[in-house]
Design brief:
The chain is mainly α. It has eight helices and no strands. Helix 6 packs antiparallel against helix 8.
């Protein structure tokens, strides 16, 4: 009787776990692959060198642009829900794909915040690096990005600020 009861309990438990797992796969959040005009993109507007473009795209663009390179596991619910929420939060902070349409003051504050976040290892986040080890920036790569950001002319008329 115990074997029979255990077998039935095991089957029901497995069924109870598997059916909901497959049902939640039916809900899919929107993919972050919107059509964007490349001329609105931060790296295009700022004429970033190719090495800087590659570093920033690899370490920042999955969460802070309209183009996310999804891994296979990013398509499995509930992971896909978490990824969608993380990308949405990142794009609220700043969206590189819509840089041209971003308020000039927000652009300036973001450039300053970016330098701070890179120096203090706040970005890319540790959680992101664990899932995407190639996004980890070396000390030299961080210094190169920071020097490039510092060299951007923040008094360019593009930013809407008058030089004093």
């Amino acid at each position: 009787m115990d074997k029979f009861f255990s077998r039935i309990t095991l089957k029901r438990t497995i069924l109870f776990l598997i059916v909901p797992f497959f049902l939640i796969q039916l809900y899919r959040p929107n993919k972050n692959d919107k059509d964007s005009v490349m001329s609105d993109d931060f790296l295009e507007i700022s004429n970033a060198p190719e090495d800087i473009k590659l570093l920033i795209k690899n370490s920042c663009y999955d969460c802070h642009s309209n183009y996310t390179n999804y891994e296979w596991y990013d398509n499995i619910s509930p992971i896909s829900w978490w990824v969608d929420k993380t990308v949405a939060k990142g794009k609220v902070a700043i969206n590189f794909s819509e840089w041209k349409n971003t308020d000039p003051q927000k652009r300036l504050s973001f450039l300053s915040a970016s330098v701070f976040d890179i120096k203090t290892d706040r970005m890319p986040t540790e959680r992101y690096i664990k899932l995407h080890p190639l996004a980890k920036l070396s000390i030299e790569e961080k210094e190169n990005i920071i020097m490039w950001i510092d060299d951007i002319n923040r008094f360019d008329p593009y930013y809407g600020i008058n030089e004093h």
